[in-house]
Automatic annotation (TrEMBL):
Subunit: The type I restriction/modification system is composed of three polypeptides R, M and S.
Organism: Isoptericola chiayiensis
Designated name of the protein: Type I restriction enzyme endonuclease subunit
Pfam families recorded: EcoR124_C, HSDR_N, SWI2_SNF2, T1R_D3-like
Catalytic activity: Endonucleolytic cleavage of DNA to give random double-stranded fragments with terminal 5'-phosphates, ATP is simultaneously hydrolyzed
Length: 1020
C-alpha cells in the first residue's frame, strides 16, 4: 500500500519501508531559502506538514509538563501529582543517571513497572515499540537553556539556544543543529559537542535522552548517534594539548540515502524521507543497536534497506507457501567492510519476532567467533550464542520453544544434521541466515541443509558474490554461483558506493618488480620463469624482505601517533600474504635472519607472527589462480615438517607475549583468537599468512598488505579489503604492496565488484601521472612567481593561491609514493618560502568580511587544511635545534639557524610563536636535554606572559588562571557566557570614557587572552 503524504509528491513509500525506493530531488527546492533562520523555519514547516505538532515551548517547566501529558496519553493513565513527582524524579530524571543509562532506558528498558499511590502496579512505557504509530511526534525550536541552570549544584557553563528538537512522547530523542548554506557542516557538529559539554546535562537533564543528532547546512545533511558525539568528547578530554587531533568522530556520521544508495543530502529531501513519521520511528525503535559496551549504533540506509527486503521476502514467500525454494530466500551483496555482520544479525533478530516462525538460525564461521563477537551476540539476544564445540548445546536450543534465535557455526550445524536424521526441527518454519556465504556452503553443506529442512528460507550475506565470471570449476554445476545457491539478489552496496560514502577507505597499490628478465627472452620464456623455483629463490625472498623492512615504517605510518582505546600507539600494522605453506616458512625465517643481521635491538625489531593450517577442501587449481581456498583450524593434515615449523613459530609467539599455545586442536583455535586480538590492539607488527586472515578478519589498526601471492576476483577484493577499515584521520587509505604483477587482476576485480568506472574511484592514479602534473605546475610557479616575494596585484594573488594550492594537493599525494623520495623538483627552501607567502595571503583574506571570504577560490580553504596536515611541528623544530646546538660546539652554523627561521615562517601554527623559538635557540645550552629545556622554557614564558596580561588589564588572578586552563583543556577560548565576566575588574556597564566601558574592556581582554592561547596552545 502506498502512503500518501499531504502537500508534496508521493515518493514510492510503502507503509512499512523505512528507506524510500528511489528519491528524485525537486530542483525548485534549491532557491527557497538561504539564511539560517529561514532554513530553520522551512524545516519546522515541513515537519508540521508531516503531522508533527509544533510546540512553542520556552522553558523546562513547559517541557516537563508536556512530557507528563504525553506519557499519560500513551499509557492511558492520569498521574496524581505525587505519582508524577516520584516517577519523574526516580525514573526519568534520576540524578545518578548519565547519558549511557538514559540511552539504555530508551533502547532496552523503555517499560517501567511503577507502583501507584493505591499500591497497584502499572507498566509505564516511554515509547511503544510494538505499535510505532501510537507514539506522538512534536517539534520545538529555539529552546533556551539559561546560563547558570543547576545540575547537582554545578551551573551550566553558558546560555545555549538549541535549533530544532524532535520530541517523541514528550522526550527529546532527536536534535537538529543548522548552519546557513555555505558554512562548513562540521561547525554544526562542533556546536552540538559544545552543547553536550556545556548544557545538555543542565536542569533535569532531559536533553541527555537525545538518541540521534542531525546536522545540516541546507545543502548537506548527515545523522549520527549520541555515541559518536560522546566518543568525540571523551577523546577530547583525554587528548593532551601537545597531541595531534586524530578524532574520527565526524567520519562516523552518515548520509541518508534511498534504496539505490543515492544520497539524499539536501535538507528538504532529507526531511521528507528521514523525518517521515514511520521512517523516524522505525529507526528509533528497530534500527538502533546497543552494543555490549553500551555504544549506540544507528544503522545506515543500505543496511536498513537490506534488512527490510529480507523481512518482506520472508512474509511474501510464506503467504504464497513457497517454502524451501530459491524464491523463498535470496542474498545481499554488501561490500567488505560495510558492516554486514551487524546487518545480518539485526535481520535475524527482527525475523525472530515475526509471527509463525519457529526458529531463526544465524550461521557464522567458527573462526569469526572470537570473545568480542560472542559478547555482542549475547548482548543482542541473551543466551543465543554458544561457543561449545559439541552439538549438544545446539540440539538443546533447537528443542527449546523459548529459543527463537540461535547463533551457531557452519561446522556445528553440519554435524547436527549428520547426527540427527529425522529431527522434528526439520519440519518447523525456519529462517537460516549465513553471515558470510562462503563458497564452501555451495557444496555438501548446502545440499545437507536443503535436504534436511522442509519449510525454510535461506539467506546469505556476502561482500564478494560468486558470478559466472569468477565461479570455480569444481562442485555441483547447479551450485556454482551465489544466485544458484541462495536465490535473487535483494540489495546491493558495492565497493564504489562504500568509498564514495566514505564508509571504507580507497586503496593505494604499489607493484614491485622482483624478477629482472634478460634481453631477448620470449613471452613464453618469461611466463616459464613464474615457477615455484624462481619465486622461492632465497635471493628473491631476501630482496622482498629487505624491501619490506626498509619501507615498513613509511607504509604503516610509524612516525605518527594516535590514541587507541586508553593508550597512544605509533602507526599501524600489516599482513604479509604468501602463496603456500612452504613460502610462509621461508619468509618467516628470512625476516628473523635479516633483522638479526642488521643488529637491531629487540625494541627496534618488528614483532613478526605466523599462522597457517591445513585446508581440507582446498582446490590447488583454484588457490593457485588466486581464489583463496577455505582454510580451517585443522593442523592434523599438515606434513610433519610444516607442523613442527608452525609449533616453533608459535613458541616464538609464546616467548614474545608470555602465552602457552601450540598446534593441538583447541589451543590452535585459541592461538588464532589471541593473534587476531593482538592485531586489533596493534601489539604485533606483521603476520605472515597463506589464506588465514585474508577473508572475514577485521582489524581497523591494519593499513598495509604485502602480497607475494596470486590473487584475483573475489579473492583479491577480500584480501585487499583487510586494509581499508576506517579508524581515524591518520589512516587515509589501505596500502597494497604487491611483489606480483596483479594490475590486470585488480582492474578486472574492481570492474566485477564495483562498476565499469570503479578503477577511477577506488585507486589512486599511477605515480607518473601525479608527478607529471606536479612538475608542470612547479614549472609554471617558477615562471610566474619568485620565492618569498609577494605577488603584485589582486589577480596575481588569486592566481598564486590557486596554483600553489594545487601544488600542495599534488605533493600531499606524492609523498606517499616511494619514488618521490629525493625526487622533489621544488627545493625545501623554495617550498617554505612560497608557503610563507601563501599563508600570509590567506591570513590577510581571513580578516575580511564574510562576503569577501566567500568569493575566494574553494581550493584555498581546502589547501590550508592540507598544510595543517603536513605542517612543520615543534618536534621538527627541536630536531633542528639539536643539530644547531651540536654545530655551536664548533661555532655557529648560520645555515641551520636560517632553516629554523624558514620552517617557522612556513608553518601556520608556529608563525605567532617565532619570537619564543628564536629566543630559545639563542639561549640553548650545550649540556641540557633539548626537550626538557624546551618544556621548562615554555612553562616559564607562559607564566610570565599571563602575569603581564593580568597586571595590564587588572584581572582577577585565580579566576583568570582557571579560565585559561579551561581554554587549554577545551581547545578554545570562551568568548561568551559568565566565565569571562568573572575575571574582569569592576567596570561600569554604561561608561563612555576613554576605555569604552564594560563591553570594550571585555573585548580587549578576550582579544589578549585569545592571542595568548593561540601562542601557547600545542606548544609543549
Amino acid at each position: 500500500m502506498t502512503e500518501s503524504v499531504s502537500r508534496f509528491e508521493p515518493i514510492a513509500l510503502s507503509s512499512e519501508s523505512t528507506v524510500v525506493a528511489e528519491f528524485e530531488t525537486d530542483p525548485a527546492e534549491a532557491t527557497r531559502y538561504q539564511s539560517e533562520a529561514e532554513l530553520e523555519a522551512e524545516l519546522v514547516r515541513l515537519l508540521q506538514e508531516q503531522a508533527y505538532e509544533y510546540l512553542p515551548i520556552t522553558s523546562e517547566a513547559d517541557l516537563v509538563a508536556n512530557l507528563r501529558t504525553q506519557l499519560e496519553a500513551l499509557n492511558r493513565i492520569t498521574f496524581s501529582d505525587d505519582e508524577w513527582r516520584r516517577f519523574f524524579s526516580t525514573v526519568i530524571a534520576s540524578a545518578s543517571d548519565s547519558v549511557r543509562e538514559k540511552t539504555v532506558r530508551v533502547q532496552e528498558n523503555h517499560v517501567e513497572a511503577f507502583k501507584r499511590d493505591d499500591g497497584s502496579t502499572k507498566n509505564i512505557a516511554l515509547i511503544d515499540k510494538a505499535h510505532i504509530h501510537n507514539n506522538r511526534l512534536q517539534v520545538i525550536n529555539q529552546y533556551e537553556v539559561p546560563a547558570g541552570a543547576p545540575s547537582d549544584g554545578v551551573p551550566a557553563q553558558r546560555a545555549n539556544r538549541y535549533d530544532v528538537t524532535i520530541l517523541v512522547n514528550g522526550l527529546p530523542l532527536v536534535h537538529v543543529e543548522l548552519k546557513r548554506r555555505g558554512v562548513d557542516i562540521r561547525e554544526a557538529f562542533n556546536q552540538i559537542n559544545r552543547y553536550q559539554r556545556d548544557s545538555f546535562w543542565s536542569g533535569s537533564g532531559l536533553f541527555e535522552y537525545v538518541q540521534l543528532f542531525v546536522i545540516s547546512n541546507g545543502t548537506l545533511t548527515k545523522y549520527y548517534s549520541n555515541t559518536v558525539r560522546a566518543a568525540h568528547l571523551d577523546e577530547q578530554a583525554k587528548r593532551k594539548a601537545s597531541a595531534r587531533r586524530t578524532s574520527n568522530s565526524f567520519e562516523f556520521t552518515s548520509w541518508w540515502a534511498d534504496a539505490t544508495n543515492r544520497s539524499i543530502t539536501d535538507l528538504v529531501g532529507f526531511t521528507k524521507t528521514f523525518f517521515a513519521k514511520h521512517s523516524l520511528l522505525n529507526i528509533l525503535t528497530k534500527y538502533c543497536v546497543l552494543t555490549a559496551d553500551r555504544m549506540l549504533l544507528v544503522m545506515r540506509p543500505y543496511q536498513i534497506a537490506a534488512t527490510e527486503q529480507i523481512l518482506t521476502r520472508i512474509e511474501t514467500s510464506s503467504n504464497q507457501k513457497r517454502f524451501g525454494t530459491l524464491s523463498a530466500g535470496g542474498y545481499v551483496w554488501h561490500t567488505t567492510g560495510s558492516g554486514k555482520t551487524l546487518t545480518s544479525f539485526k535481520t535475524a533478530q527482527l525475523a525472530s519476532r515475526l509471527e509463525g516462525l519457529d526458529k531463526v538460525l544465524f550461521v557464522v564461521d567458527r573462526k569469526d567467533l572470537d570473545y568480542q563477537t560472542m559478547r555482542e551476540y549475547d548482548r543482542f539476544e541473551k543466551g543465543a550464542a554458544n561457543s561449545n564445540s559439541s552439538t549438544a548445546v545446539l540440539k538443546r536450543q533447537l528443542e527449546d520453544p523459548g529459543a527463537r534465535i540461535i547463533i551457531t557455526t557452519i561446522q556445528k550445524l553440519s554435524t547436527f544434521i549428520k547426527q540427527n536424521a529425522g529431527h522434528a526441527i526439520y519440519s518447523g518454519h525456519v529462517v537460516i541466515i549465513f553471515d558470510e556465504c562462503h563458497r564452501s556452503q555451495f557444496g555438501d553443506m548446502h545440499t545437507a541443509i536443503t535436504r534436511a529442512f522442509k519449510r525454510y528460507h535461506l539467506f546469505g550475506f556476502t561482500g564478494t558474490p560468486i558470478f559466472a565470471e569468477n565461479a570455480g570449476t569444481g562442485g555441483a554445476p547447479k551450485l556454482r554461483t551465489t544466485a544458484q545457491a541462495f536465490g535473487d539478489k535483494l540489495h546491493t552496496y558495492t565497493i564504489v558506493d562504500a568509498i564514495n560514502d566514505k564508509n571504507v577507505l580507497p586503496f593505494r597499490i604499489d607493484y614491485i618488480n622482483t624478477v629482472k628478465v634478460r634481453d631477448g627472452l620470449s613471452d613464453k620464456e618469461v611466463a616459464a620463469i613464474d615457477t615455484d623455483a624462481a619465486r622461492l629463490d632465497p635471493r628473491r625472498i631476501r630482496n622482498n624482505v629487505e624491501y619490506t623492512l626498509d619501507h615498513f615504517d613509511q607504509k604503516t605510518r610509524r612516525n605518527t601517533t594516535y590514541r587507541l582505546k586508553d593508550r597512544r600507539v605509533a602507526g599501524f600494522n600489516a599482513l604479509f600474504a604468501t602463496e603456500s605453506v612452504q613460502a610462509a616458512k621461508i619468509y618467516y625465517n628470512m625476516f628473523a635472519r635479516v633483522q638479526e643481521e642488521r643488529g637491531l635491538p629487540d625494541a627496534k625489531r618488528l614483532k613478526v607472527g605466523l599462522i597457517f593450517s591445513y585446508a581440507a577442501n582446498e582446490s590447488p587449481s583454484e588457490d593457485a589462480s588466486g581464489l583463496l581456498g577455505e582454510e580451517e583450524f585443522e593442523t592434523d593434515g599438515l606434513d610433519a615438517l610444516s607442523r613442527d615449523f608452525l609449533e616453533d613459530a608459535i613458541q616464538d609467539y609464546n616467548d614474545m607475549f608470555g602465552t602457552s599455545f601450540d598446534t593441538s586442536a583447541e589451543k590452535f583455535q585459541n592461538y588464532y583468537k589471541d593473534l587476531s586480538l593482538r592485531m586489533k590492539n596493534r601489539e604485533i607488527d606483521l603476520v605472515i599468512v597463506v589464506n588465514m586472515f585474508l577473508t572475514g578478519f577485521d582489524a581497523t589498526t591494519m593499513n598495509t598488505l604485502w602480497v607475494d601471492k596470486n590473487l584475483r576476483a573475489h579473492g583479491l577484493i577480500q584480501a585487499y579489503s583487510r586494509t581499508n577499515r576506517i579508524l581515524n584521520s591518520v589512516k587515509t587509505y589501505g596500502n597494497i604492496v604487491s611483489f606480483r604483477n596483479l594490475e590486470q587482476e585488480t582492474q578486472d576485480a574492481l570492474a566485477l565488484f564495483g562498476n565499469k568506472d570503479a578503477t577511477s574511484t577506488v585507486l589512486l592514479a599511477p605515480y607518473a601521472e601525479y608527478f607529471g602534473e606536479y612538475a608542470d605546475k612547479v614549472t609554471e610557479l617558477r615562471e610566474q612567481f619568485v620565492p618569498g616575494q609577494m605577488p603584485v596585484g589582486e589577480q596575481a594573488a588569486k592566481d598564486f593561491i590557486a596554483l600553489f594550492g594545487a601544488i600542495l594537493r599534488l605533493r600531499n599525494i606524492l609523498v606517499s609514493f616511494d619514488e618521490f623520495a629525493g625526487a622533489d623538483i621544488l627545493s625545501e627552501r623554495d617550498r617554505q618560502d612560497f608557503q610563507s607567502v601563501y599563508l600570509e595571503l590567506w591570513n590577510a583574506r581571513r580578516g575580511r568580511q564574510a562576503a569577501e571570504r566567500e568569493s575566494i577560490n574553494d581550493d584555498v580553504t581546502f589547501e590550508i587544511e592540507l598544510i595543517k596536515q603536513v605542517e612543520i611541528n615543534v618536534d621538527y623544530i627541536l630536531m633542528l635545534v639539536e643539530q644547531y646546538r651540536a654545530a655551536r660546539g664548533d661555532g655557529e652554523d648560520s645555515e641551520i639557524k636560517a632553516s629554523i627561521d624558514r620552517a617557522i615562517d612556513s608553518s601556520p601554527t608556529l608563525r605567532n610563536k617565532k619570537d619564543l623559538i628564536e629566543e630559545f635557540v639563542d639561549r640553548i645550552s650545550l649540556d641540557e636535554h633539548v626537550a626538557d629545556e624546551w618544556r621548562a622554557y615554555v612553562a616559564a614564558k607562559r607564566e610570565a606572559e599571563l602575569m603581564r596580561i593580568i597586571a595590564e588589564e587588572n584581572l582577577k588572578p585565580e579566576p583568570t588562571r582557571a579560565f585559561i586552563d579551561a581554554a587549554f583543556r577545551d581547545g578554545a577560548v570562551r568568548a561568551t557566557g559568565t566565565a569571562i565576566t568573572k575575571i574582569l575588574p569592576p567596570v561600569s556597564r554604561f561608561g563612555r570614557g576613554a576605555g569604552g566601558g564594560h563591553g570594550a574592556k571585555k573585548q580587549t581582554v578576550i582579544d589578549k587572552l585569545t592571542a595568548f592561547f593561540e601562542r601557547f596552545f600545542d606548544l609543549a
